[in-house]
C-alpha cells in the first residue's frame, strides 16, 4: 500500500545546546512538526542561543531537565506537504528553506543539504537520498552505528533497511532518520515521486536555478570536508591471523563489495607486507569478472 509518509526526523537532545537548537528548529518548522511546539517544550527553555527569528530571553539552564527523554519531537516529511522546489526538502538558514535551521549558527550554509529522490543507480530504481549542496563545512551520515567522514557535494542513500541512520550537519544539529517509504516502484508511488521532482512554477524554478550555499560562516576549528567514496563495513565474512574479508557498502551507489584488508592486529602492529598486498590487488584487477572491480 502506497504511503504519504516519506521519513521522520528525530532531533538529538543529548545536551543543553542541542535542546536549544531543537527548540528553534521545531518552532521555525512548526508546520512539519509532529506536535505543537508549546506541547513539546517547557516554558523556561526558549530560544536564546539559536534561532534569532523570534529570539526571547531564557532562564539559566538547569544541569538536568526533567522533561529530557520524555518527549520525542520530530519533523515529518511527506508527499502531502511537498518541498518548494524540485531539489527536494532543502535544509539551510534561508527563510525559504523547507527545513529552516538557526540563522545565526556558524557552519550551516544558506542552502546546506536536501533530502530528495534519485534513480542515478545501476538498477535505475528510485531511492531516497540526502545530497550535500556544496556546503562549506559538509555533512556526514552514520549507518548502523558506524560514523563516517564529512563530505560536500556528495550523495548518501537513506536505505530503509539500515538501522540508526544519523545525519550530522553541526555539532548541535543531529537528526536520526526513520525512513518510512519502502515502495518506490508501484505506479502510485512513481506518480508521487514524479510530482515531487517536478518544477513547481516559473518562480520556484528560477529560485532553484539560483540555489547556492552562500553566506556560510566557517565554524571555529572546522575542517574542509574530504573527497572520495565512502564504504561502510556491514559484515565480516571471514577473518584470519593476517587478514579479513568484509562486506562493505558504497553509500552513494548502493553497490556492495567484498573488501580484503590486513587484520586489525596486523594494522596496529604494522605486521604486514605492503608490497605483497599491492601485488595481490594488481592481480585481482587483471581478473575479468563481474564481481571484481578496480
Instruction: Work out the count of structural domains.
Output: 2
Name of the CATH first level of the largest domain: Mainly Beta
In percent, how much strand structure appears in the residues? 15-25%
The radius of gyration computed from the alpha-carbon positions, rounded to a whole number of angstroms, is 22 Å
Distance between the termini: 41 Å
Question: What multimeric state do the chains show?
Answer: single chain
CATH architecture of the largest domain: Sandwich
Elements, N to C (H/E): EHHEEEEEEEEEHHEEEHH
Low-confidence stretches: 36-52, 54-71
DSSP, total strands: 13
Main sheet specs: 5 strands, antiparallel
Total count of helical runs of at least 4 residues: 6
Percent range for helical residues?
A: 10-25%
Q: What is the overall silhouette? A: globular
Q: Structural class of the secondary elements?
A: alpha+beta
Amino acid at each position: 500500500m502506497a504511503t504519504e509518509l516519506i521519513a521522520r526526523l528525530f532531533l538529538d537532545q543529548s545536551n543543553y545546546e542541542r535542546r536549544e537548537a531543537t527548540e528553534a528548529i521545531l518552532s521555525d518548522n512548526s508546520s512539519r512538526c509532529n506536535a505543537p511546539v508549546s506541547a513539546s517544550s517547557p516554558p523556561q527553555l526558549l530560544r536564546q542561543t539559536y534561532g534569532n527569528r523570534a529570539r526571547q530571553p531564557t532562564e539559566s539552564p538547569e544541569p538536568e531537565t526533567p522533561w529530557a527523554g520524555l518527549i520525542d519531537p520530530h519533523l515529518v516529511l511527506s508527499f502531502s506537504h511537498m518541498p518548494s522546489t524540485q531539489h527536494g526538502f532543502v535544509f539551510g538558514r534561508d527563510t525559504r528553506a523547507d527545513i529552516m535551521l538557526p540563522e545565526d549558527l556558524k557552519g550551516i550554509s544558506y542552502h546546506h543539504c536536501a533530502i530528495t529522490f534519485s534513480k542515478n543507480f545501476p538498477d535505475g530504481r528510485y531511492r531516497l537520498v540526502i545530497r550535500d549542496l556544496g556546503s562549506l563545512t559538509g555533512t556526514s551520515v552514520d549507518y548502523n552505528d558506524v560514523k563516517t567522514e564529512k563530505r560536500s557535494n556528495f550523495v548518501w542513500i537513506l536505505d530503509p533497511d539500515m538501522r540508526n541512520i544519523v545525519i550530522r550537519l553541526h555539532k548541535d544539529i543531529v537528526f536520526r532518520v526513520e525512513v518510512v517509504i519502502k515502495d518506490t516502484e508501484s505506479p502510485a508511488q512513481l506518480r508521487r515521486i514524479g510530482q515531487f521532482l517536478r518544477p513547481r512554477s516559473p518562480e520556484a524554478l528560477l529560485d532553484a536555478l539560483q540555489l547556492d550555499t552562500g553566506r556560510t560562516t566557517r565554524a571555529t576549528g572546522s575542517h574542509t570536508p574530504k573527497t572520495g567514496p565512502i564504504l561502510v563495513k556491514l559484515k565480516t565474512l571471514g577473518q584470519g591471523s593476517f587478514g579479513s574479508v568484509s562486506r562493505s557498502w558504497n553509500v552513494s551507489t548502493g553497490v556492495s563489495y567484498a573488501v580484503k584488508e590486513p587484520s586489525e592486529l596486523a594494522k596496529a602492529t604494522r605486521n604486514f607486507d605492503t608490497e605483497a598486498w599491492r601485488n595481490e590487488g594488481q592481480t585481482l584487477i587483471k581478473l575479468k569478472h563481474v564481481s571484481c572491480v578496480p
